[in-house]
Amino acid sequence: MSDRYTSFARSGPGRAIVKRLGLPDPPRLPRYRSGDAIIPGPVLVGPSDGPRYEELAKLLGSNEQGEKHHALVFDATGISTPAGLRALYDFFHPAARSLTPAGRVIVLGLPLSSAADPGQAAAQQALDGFVRSVGKEFGRGTTAQLVRVHPEADTAALRSTLEFLISTKSAYVSGQTITVDATPAAEGKDLTGKVALVTGAARGIGAAMARVLARDGAHVICLDVPSAGDDLAKVANEVRGEAYQLDLTGADAAQRLVEHVRERHGRLDVLVHNAGITRDKTLANMDQTRWDSVLKVNLIAPAHVTEALLDAGLIPAGGRIVGVASIAGVAGNRGQTNYAASKAGVIGWVRALAPVLAAQGVTVNAVAPGFIETAMTAKMPVLIREVGRRMNSLSQGGLPVDVAETVAWFAAPGSAAVTGNVVRVCGQSLLGA
């Protein structure tokens, strides 16, 4: 769907008007294409006396001499007092203008649970406000993230996360806090030989997920309801996967899926619960069917299907489970009490399930999309659609591929230390936390 305002803002006359009136100025966001460099430009790592400086500089190829940098990476894990926060200023103040357009800012911190005293906790919590502000301030498509690293985590366990956040795969992810634990990275650079299942794969975000997971080497089972059969077959053929028609809210759906996976593949390495519906009405005007159907599809079915697959032993060590939440589940939304409840439920489910499955070597995470350009958002009233596009630090809507790339990062073998996270793909929406 075309964004006429963005096209106008990038035109000659439009640029002048946007600048003069102080209107939103959507930057160009480069997206990853197969063959692109994962780290597309010079990276500046600091401080030089940081606990992980040498390892990070080696991993990311730190370039201290260059005048321009694609990314600024700062290790704040050694900051133990509020006074120590001055190191942020000392590093970023002179380097801020060295960032190229669509640059990246990443700050490494510690989990608050590992703070030794209130002073260290205050200093580490301060990183959150700093990073979110940078994401709103630097502009020109720059994104900013805080990565909280377990004190015992090997720097190699950070590789998958740092590469995702520095690459153009994270174009629409900003202002996020991500936790990396001490689990060693698994072997394998991509998903070659892995079996992935994407629900709701017939169109939109689900179809993009299928494409990106297949690009990364996975054999993708594309699942959707029978009424979407034609579109589902097209996507499955495109990714050289398989189409499986099934309504997951059916009484025997979970068992049928278990039997299908067992007979065809014997295991499921990646499970992505993307299928979702909306049935919007204000609560006073909402009938029971609208409430029940949304909760069944968005929350009850994913939990039930996951339980069945786990009980059948079909998700092995190294498995990845990804739920799809929504910014509505974080901030709420008028006319969407059912939808917001279901998506907030996904967040709670993921956070509770992650530590339970950690002992089995299975990770559980969630993406929470904001305004993504899909057929559904194209049907919104013009004013609401424009507000959704502009109410974020990047002043534009995201693309389905932005959500898909985040799922692929969660699914990667190198992301074994990433679990229990809920990452918003929203361009740092101004709504919600």
UniProtKB/TrEMBL annotation:
Signal peptide coordinates: none
EC number: 1.1.1.100
Ketoreductase domain sequence ranges: 194-375
Keywords of the record: Oxidoreductase
Superkingdom field: Bacteria
GO molecular function: 3-oxoacyl-[acyl-carrier-protein] reductase (NADPH) activity
InterPro entries to which the protein is assigned, alphabetical: KR_dom (IPR057326), NAD(P)-bd_dom_sf (IPR036291), Sc_DH/Rdtase_CS (IPR020904), SDR_fam (IPR002347)
Stored PANTHER family: 3-OXOACYL-[ACYL-CARRIER-PROTEIN] REDUCTASE [NADH] (PTHR42760:SF78), SHORT-CHAIN DEHYDROGENASES/REDUCTASES FAMILY MEMBER (PTHR42760)
Family: Belongs to the short-chain dehydrogenases/reductases (SDR) family.
Full protein name: 3-oxoacyl-ACP reductase
Source species: Catellatospora aurea
